[in-house]
Amino acid sequence: MIVLDNIHVVFGRGTPLEKKALAGVSLTIKEGAFTTVIGSNGAGKSTLLGVLAGDVIPTEGSVRIGTSDVTKLPTAARAGRVARVFQDPLAGSCGALSIEENLALAYRRGQRRGLKLALGHQRRKLFRERIAELDLGLENRMSDRMAMLSGGQRQAVSLVMAMMASCDVLLLDEHTAALDPGMAEFVMRLTEKIVGANKLTTLMVTHSMRQALDYGDRTIMLHGGEIVLDVEGNNRRNLEVEDLIDMFRRVRGQTLDDDELLIAE
Amino acid sequence: MSQIALWGAVELGLVYAFVALGVYLAFRVLDFPDLTVDGTFPLGAAVTAVLIMAGVNPWVSAFVAMLAGALAGLVTAALNVRFKILNLLASILTMIALFSVNLRVMGRPNVALLSVDTMLTPFYGNGLRDFMVRPLFLLVLAIVALIVVWRYLESDAGLAMRATGANARMARAQGINTDRQIYLGIALSNALVALGGALFAQTNGFADVTSGVGTIVVGLAAVIIGETLFGTRRILIALIGCVVGSILYRIAIQLALSSDSLGLQASDLNLVTAVLVTFALVLPRLKRGVLSS
Questions:
Q1: Cβ(B217)–Cβ(B37) under 8 Å?
Q2: A162: closest CA of chain B, how far (Å)
Q3: Do A74 and B173 touch (CB under 8 A)?
Q4: Cβ(B163)–Cβ(A104) under 8 Å?
Q5: Helix (H) or strand (E) holding B144
Q6: What is the pLDDT of residue A65?
Q7: Distance from chain centroid for Cα B216
Q8: SS3 (DSSP) at A23
Q9: Which residue of chain A comes nearest to B150, CA vs CA?
């Protein structure tokens, strides 16, 4: 379970550029729930993920993941609880290291790293099996550098990496936004499969309203650092993208002209 | 070039192989341009020389020199990590400070190690000429250092260090404390360089406060020559490249200086060094240019 309690985040406090990124967000996510998060640019989506990942330490409020309070823990210290796939395919893996080395890094996520060989015989076998499940033929390129893969392949490997070690929550930060439609589709199907098989508590940020409604079992909309919409169950099942846009207009009290980045389909 | 001059070049190349391994850790693994080494090389020489003159076992003195080097590295890392000073500038500050520290350690600019036992003393006079014993001894030590560094970089802990240099944000997301990796890596790097300095003092019979000038350039030259000739794909190959690169660099310098047709003299050393390093840096680009056109 994840509990965010009255989270406030202010960037550049006391400067002319002071920006309130989150203004009192409270959110409880049940164990095993798949929640999608939408909102326009600057709505606070990335900040929300940052607060959960540890990149952003809230100005006020508390964060609980599982049984422990992680509010003040930096990213590295809570990595054992949080698995993550970034929007930028280059951000979530080391381009200079090989596929199997990246998997070895993820294999010890949040654990002590000792002098044991990172790529022993058994680990190599395990990594190969996991990569083979992707069906992308990458199992024959395990010692290729990550930089040689396409964006989609990197995101697929990043998902496998996220599953190498146990976690309490999986954070997906618009992880298909940088991909071509075909690859985005593949990565989303893979995501659904992995999340379903592992019954993972998942938070997925997306720009696509279609995606937000098609995947997961709960959708929240952020605007101006606040949660303005929170639907699940039957209410959500009957919801169409048009309804979402309507709701969005209502909360904004204006048209969507300036939100070209909010994609309906 | 005479046979003795060749063995001499190999010997010096092997001394600087330790510098090259250290520079590889800082520059290539951690992506941390660390100029501290210009201070840690003479620091290692100074510490070992002073301790040997005080009657300490030469092996122990070399080990203490490594600790001193590691300490200097920790200062640079702290300036960078703790106080957010730009890495290059942080290392220059430590380097400048070490010049004074080295003078304090020795009490004078130069300490001679004549008529005292060094790590090499037991190996002299067993049939091989002295000028051959030194490089062979250094070669064994260099291989040991290479294997230790290689094994470390292939471990979980070493992989964490490589990830820190390659993609710090990703490393943190994998639970790696990147600050700690920088402390550790820069300390290891400077310990190796100080060991190089200690071996320099013991093989050459003196420690001199000015012997550190240009250490970073020589180390980098070795790394780059190695990369150009051997490639960077595998850690072991890259490390072997560092050692071989360091030896080849010294031979190239020796050839340039001893070739009468070029008319160079010993004082041209730094100019020749700069030209060689520039050449080694440009060469990979030229190669790519030729291949693509």
A1: no
A2: 9
A3: no
A4: no
A5: helix B130-153
A6: 93
A7: 8
A8: strand
A9: A117
Give the residue from A227, A222, A90 showing the smallest Cα distance to A155. A90
Residues of A with Cβ-Cβ distance to B162 under 8 angstroms: 94, 96-97, 101
Both tokens assigned to A122: 């058994």
Buried-state track B153-192, b at ≥16 Cβ within 10 A, e below 16? bbbbbbbbbbbbbbbbebbbbbbbbbbebbbbbbbbbbbb
B160 touches chain A (CB under 8 A): yes
For the segment B235-254, what is each residue's pLDDT rounded down to a tens digit? Answer: 999 999 999 999 999 998 88
B177/A94 Cβ within 8 A: no
Contact between B87 and B32 under an 8 Å Cβ cutoff? The reply is: yes
Query: Model pTM?
Result: 0.91
**Prediction ipTM score:** 0.90
Where exactly are the structural domains of chain B?
3-209
Question: Residue with structure tokens 């009957």?
Answer: A238
Tell me how far apart the 2 most distant CA atoms of chain B are, in Å.
63
Sites in chain A below the pLDDT cut of 50: 255-261, 265
CA A157, chain centre distance (Å): 15
At A28-44, the pLDDT tens digits run: 999 999 999 998 888 89
